[in-house]
Amino acid sequence: MSTSNTSPFSSDSGNARSPRIAHLMRGVLDMLYGAYAWMVFLMVALPAYLIILFTKPLGVRRQIVRRAARLVFQCIGVRLTISGLDRLPEEPHILVVNHTSFLDAIVLTALLPAAPGYAFTARQQFRRQRLFCPLLRALGLIVLRSSDARHLSSNIDRIVKALRRGEKVVMFPEGGFTPIAGLERFHAGAFVAAAKAEVPIVVGALRGARTALRPRSWMPRRSPIAVEIGTVLRASGADRASIAALRDNARRLMLPMTGEPDLTA
Length: 265
What we know:
alpha/beta; 8 helices; 45% helix
């Protein structure tokens, strides 16, 4: 009589369970890391928020938020790097960067020079977010009206005014970001503003932020993030053809820097 070698404790059963157990453990560790990252963020952000609201010089506010952002990433073990800082002009300019995650602005705040610092742009919906709006405005946020074509001229005027008073501005020419990795089509606003204010466009790129905090997810992951500062461009004129050429050239240069596919192809 033959006997079966099959057993619930056999090596085959153990091998089948191992990937499931490893996947479960990985999920638990990811959740624990995400909870820890949020705890660190709140512990650093809340005191910084209060200090900034009661600090008057804009340059000091930006230095405080830069240090706070760097401290958060350091505590949660996310490695930040930036290359090409020497390419940033001293004069007012617009730095255009690909938009990949809610982390993008925080990463750029941590890595870009704080003195005199950069003003970011955001749509009008931030005015309805009462918790963040005072902080963002205290850091020199340029609040734009909706993306409706009727408001395009007034939005550009706001950016031009900021540039003419000496601000350096960060803009995401894609507008928003999507769960699909890749570079979207560019809006013309940043390039029209640069041409009208007669300031350069600096091409930059973010890598790794999409992995660290995926779109449609609030669970941070430990992933290195890099920023690269690339070519400095200038508009040859303020006419439509010159602005389109500037926009297309900036996008052509940015695409290989992102390491992501072209979503318009």
